[in-house]
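Quick log. Single chain, no ligands specified.
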Amino acid sequence: MADEHIIARYRHWYRKLLRFYSRPYRERFAESMEQTFNDVCREQAKAGKGLVGFVLWAFAETSLGIIRENLMSIIMQKSIVRIAMVVGLVLLLPLLGNLFVDGFNWDLADFIIWGILLFGTGLTFELIARKGGTLAYRAAVGVACLAGFLLVWINAAVGIIGDEELANAMYLGVLAVGFVGAFIAGFQPRGMSRVLIATAVAQALVPLIAMTWVPENRFSPGFVPVMGLNAVFVAAWIVSAILFRYAAEPWSRIEGQELGRGESREVAAE
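-> predicted structure:
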C-alpha cells in the first residue's frame, strides 16, 4: 500500500516533467511515456528493488530528452537563426558607437557579455512562449523576459543599489524566484500569474531589506531614484502577471485556437 502511494507521487511529478515537451510531442508520446514509467516503477517495487535510483535516472534521461527535443524544434523552426540575426543587428549599434562616438569605448568582453544576454533572453522567450498558444501568454513572457534582461544588464553595468555588491546580488534571488516558480507551475498561465506576483514582491523587498545595513547615503544615485527604478521592475512583473492571468481565461484560449489555426495555415502555405 505504501509502495502504491509512493509510485502515485512519483508518477504525478513525472507527469509534470512531461509538460516541458512541446505540445505536438507531448500529445503524441506523453501518455505512453507516463504509463511506461508507472509500469516500471511497479515492477521495481514488486521485485523489491529501490525506486529512488530508477526514478532519478528516469527524470534525468527525460530532462535531457526534453532539452534535446526543444532545441531541435527551435532549430527546425529557424527561430535560433532569427534570434542570432536580431542580436547581430542590435550589436551593430555599440559597434558604430565605438567607431563614430567620442568616449564610447566597448571592449570585446562588453560585446560578448551583451551578446550572451541578448541571445539568452531571446532563446528563453522562444522556449517558454511556445508553451502557450495565445497572444496574451506570449506578451506576458515577453514582458517578463525584457524585465529580467534589463535587471541583469543594469545591475551588471552600474549596480541598482550603487556599489553595494551584496545588496545588488539579492536581485539574483528575484530572478531565482521567477525561474524556480515557473518550473514548479509547469509554465501554466494561472500558475505563472502567481509566480510573477511573487517575483514582484521579491523585487519590492530587496531595497527594503538592503536598508537594514546600507546607509541611505550609500544608495547611489540616491534613495528615491533607487526606489523609483525598483518600482518600475515591480510594475513590469505585475503587468506580466496580469497578462498571464488573462491568458488563463476561456476567451483567451479561444483566441489561442484561432492563432494556432492561423499559424498552421502559414506553415501549409510555406
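The chain has three domains: 2-74, 78-130, 133-269.
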